[in-house]
Amino acid sequence: MDFETAVEWAETLKTRKRKLDDYQETILDWLKEHPDLSASQISDWLEERCGYREIGESTVRTYIKELREKYHIPKALNKRHFEAL
Q1: Which residue range(s) make up the domain with 48?
Q2: Which domain of life is it from (predicted)?
Q3: How many domains does the chain have?
Q4: Taking Cα atoms as reference points, which of 72, 71, 59 lies closest to residue 19?
Q5: What's the CA gap between 30 and 33, in Å, rounded?
Q6: Angle at the Cα of 7 (from 23 to 60), degrees rounded to 5?
Q7: Residues 6 or more apart whose Cβ sits within 8 Å of residue 58
Q8: Going by fewer Cβ within 10 Å, which terminus of the chain is more open, N or C?
């Protein structure tokens, strides 16, 4: 591949549609309502609530990380209060 072809190909990567783009609004609503959700939980919810099973865990993790950065939704850490009985 020559340089110009490589540049054109790299530009198409910036605008291509991602697998989870169709669910972006739903995921954003979940993250705003429950900022402590993990990517694994969101993956489970996509499976249970939306019937979407065609995606790997690492893809969901990356997508969630990018959404949190883009929309400034920090991961809230809820510490569990418990004691040994």
Answers
A1: 19-77
A2: Bacteria
A3: 1
A4: 59
A5: 5
A6: 20
A7: none
A8: C
